[in-house]
Write a structure and sequence with these properties.
about 350 residues; alpha+beta; 8-stranded mixed β-sheet; 12 helices; about 40% helix; globular
Length: about 350
């Protein structure tokens, strides 16, 4: 299953070459997975294990665009969808939206290298809008799109959400403070999805909180405005304000402000629902441990590597269905060994 899915992804993205080509698809899988395992450059991997160089690997992406890579990723999801549903027990789950950063160490130029990144020593970053489904224990990445400078985030959210709804019916869509956008709220309302967005504490919010008791929950309906294409639009937004909330007596208290069209009876239901996002951020920190290094500014190559690592992460999560309890690092190591044909693996997990 794992080998078949990875090969399917490469066959869908790589350009077609003649049958007399020196390298077969297994050679590329071997190099890419070994680079993932060691968090290394593909050229270094080639020296270590043999096979195609980084230049040869990336030459197979000639004339490939973002759409082809995205389509290949979702084609893989379709093939393993029955496992995703089994892992999530066919429950309706939350979708968490994030913008992740991939550090860049070089001259910042072009439309795809953003000028700021928190990573130490970096000069900028590539950014990706990512959507993941999450329940209490399991997180699966359902989509990722590159974000250029000046990109319309609302349209990117619409695009990734449209694709994702083919696989998962979300209980609610969760967004952090970076998505507190009136136009986004209007779009989500029009397409009829449930949402919860952590909102900024505007002056009217601070004023409202001063009149609230500790732990009190207040709902406020407001008509908000936004500008687009030299026109002004109005949208009705329902805000839920929770003042000085603590889940347990010894917890630190927090102020929460959500823009949402969901209704809950208690403050902890809003907060607990939003906290499902926090597991996603942990998942991305885990994903950082299997990155393939590169210095290229080519946005298509960068996106390909990003999506490839997301696919490997998903396969690791799905392997737990077969009672595979390996860490992500050991999981990748085991797959590499499979391609080297030195080990045998549990039936149904690594075969194929």
């Amino acid at each position: 299953m794992i080998a078949t899915t990875i090969k399917h992804f490469l066959n869908k993205t790589f350009c077609i070459v003649g049958s007399n080509s020196q390298y077969k698809i297994d050679d590329f899988v071997h190099v890419l997975l070994d680079a993932v395992e060691h968090e290394d450059f593909t050229n270094n991997t080639c020296v270590r294990v043999g096979g195609p160089t980084g230049e040869t690997v990336f030459s197979r992406l000639k004339n490939v665009d973002f759409f082809a890579i995205t389509s290949a990723f979702h084609s893989c999801l379709e093939k393993i969808l029955f496992l995703v549903r089994r892992l999530l027990r066919n429950r309706r789950v939350a979708l968490a939206f994030d913008i992740t950063e991939e550090p860049f160490y070089g001259r910042v130029e072009g439309l795809w290298v953003h000028a700021y990144c928190e990573a130490r020593g970096s000069t900028g970053c590539f950014k990706y809008l990512t959507v993941s489904c999450t329940d209490k224990q399991n997180k699966i990445i359902l989509g990722s799109l590159p974000v250029r400078i000046g990109a319309d985030i609302v349209e990117l959210v619409r695009e990734v959400l449209t694709r994702t709804q083919k696989f998962i019916i979300p209980e609610v869509c969760l967004f952090d403070r970076g998505f507190d956008n009136c136009r986004l709220v209007e779009m989500l309302q029009k397409i009829g999805v449930r949402y919860q967005i952590l909102w900024r504490k505007d002056q009217w919010v601070k004023k409202t909180m001063k009149s609230m008791k500790r732990g009190e929950v207040k709902e406020v309906l407001r008509i908000s405005k936004y500008s687009q294409d030299k026109s002004t639009y109005k949208v009705k937004i329902r805000f839920v304000i929770i003042n000085q909330y603590r889940r347990y007596p010894r917890d630190k208290s927090y102020h929460w402000v959500f823009a949402t069209n969901t209704r809950n009876s208690w403050a902890h239901e809003y907060v607990d629902k939003y906290r499902k996002r926090w597991g996603i951020e942990t998942a991305f920190r885990v994903l950082d441990n299997i990155n393939i290094k590169t210095t290229t500014k080519n946005e298509v190559i960068r996106y390909f590597l990003n999506v490839f690592c997301c696919l490997v992460y998903n396969l690791w999560k799905l392997s737990k269905i077969f009672e595979c309890s390996l860490s992500l690092k050991n999981f990748v190591f085991t797959i590499v060994q499979r391609f080297r044909k030195n080990n045998k693996f549990p039936q149904g997990v690594f075969e194929g």
